[in-house]
Amino acid sequence: xxxxxxxxxxxxxxxxxxxxxxxxxxxxxxxxxxxxxxxxxxxxxxxxxxxxxxxxxxxxxxxxxxxxxxxxxxxxxxxxxxxxxxxxxxxxxxxxxxxxxxxxxxxxxxxxxxxxxxxxxxxxxxxxxxxxxxxxxxxxxxxxxxxxxxxxxxxxxxxxxxxxxxxxxxxxxxxxxxxxxxxxxxxxxxxxxxxxxxxxxxxxxxxxxxxxxxxxxxxxxxxxxxxxxxxxxxxxxxxxxxxxxxxxxxxxxxxxxxxxxxxxxxxxxxxxxxxxxxxxxxxxxxxxxxxxxxxxxxxxxxxxxxxxxxxxxxxxxxxxxxxxxxxxxxxxxxxxxxxxxxxxxxxxxxxxxxxxxxxxxxxxxxxxxxxxxxxxxxxxxxxxxxxxxxxxxxxxxxxxxxxxxxxxxxxxxxxxxxxxxxxxxxxxxxxxxxxxxxxx
Length: 440
Prior knowledge:
Layout: E1 14-15, H1 17-27, E2 34-37, E3 45-46, E4 50-51, E5 61-62, E6 66-69, H2 71-74, E7 83-91, E8 105-109, E9 121-124, E10 152-156, E11 166-167, E12 178-180, H3 188-196, E13 201-205, E14 209-215, E15 219-220, E16 231-232, H4 235-246, E17 249-256, H5 260-270, E18 276-280, H6 291-295, E19 307-313, E20 315-316, E21 320-326, E22 331-336, H7 340-359, E23 368-373, E24 379-380, E25 386-394, E26 397-400, H8 409-414, E27 417-421, E28 427-428, E29 433-438
Parallel strand pairs: 1-19, 7-8, 14-17, 14-18, 15-16, 18-22, 20-25, 23-26
Antiparallel strand pairs: 2-13, 3-13, 4-12, 5-11, 6-8, 6-9, 7-10, 19-21, 21-22, 23-29, 24-28, 25-26, 25-27, 27-29
């Protein structure tokens, strides 16, 4: 792609937050569905409705370890006058050839085992003498340790109603029922249900692969020694973690120095594993803001109208932004500012919705709420800018954390909400109801 493919028309005007977001969401499309094994599909979004092919449970089964009996045979049973039944054998979970329980008979039955023909209820072993000829027992002897326990007689000390301690066929779901609706995110319980109805694979939209790359010659990796003028690279860690929190498979690339050729080759190398690329830093107007220069010739997207447009947004923090597509597959790229708070706020407002759009989720935004501002003094905001201030939200109130500076990362770590100050408001008094974006 030549330098002409990097669009600069966005620099000619001030974009609103909503215009920039709309441009992103109308460009990014959900990833194509694929068939995945169940565990590989965890955290993915289901593409099709899944119906139940067989009822759960698929047969009447016992919910207790005990004895399968006929109701009439244990009617009126008590500890003083127990019902004495002939034990005809065991019914274990997974049993196929079932015993038939006739008048005056009982079958030892294990939890999950099919209710044998003729039986109408299950009495827990604790209601019996366990076939040992004494009083009530607390458990059942293992067959291997006491084979005689599977035969002989058992004394039942309580009556049982019909279907007592029996899980009915189809009591969970019935064949033909809707198991999971399209759009469901597959967590552990949903995967358990799919396995229970016999589905080994499922069609989903895959989790998007997001490559996060930070720029700046001043950036040093944690655990390394800082030289004069250097700082630790926090942006790439924050945004990689945020991408994973949004549902993506995220890859962090170490900080790239302020050299256009190095940055360009790094981006080209990373395109092979990216459904979305996120850069941070180098999008302002400084002499060393090289992201614009590097993106002017990445890949070969010019022929199809690709390219990245750099813009100024009417927001604080996060005024400089970039968005477009690069490379032969027109991979979406969002270029975020380098100040830590600007970068993170921009991620929440623009990148997270893009990730969740790629996943095919119907709701891509963080939840919002109304809250009463709890502060010692009025909040100030520049005219014509939508400001996002860090805050803590609780019980319908929100309290600012830190100031408006885009470098105040310690305050960001304490925040669980963003306080939204509209473009037309330059001052917000304590006690005023404000809109907040809930971050967690």
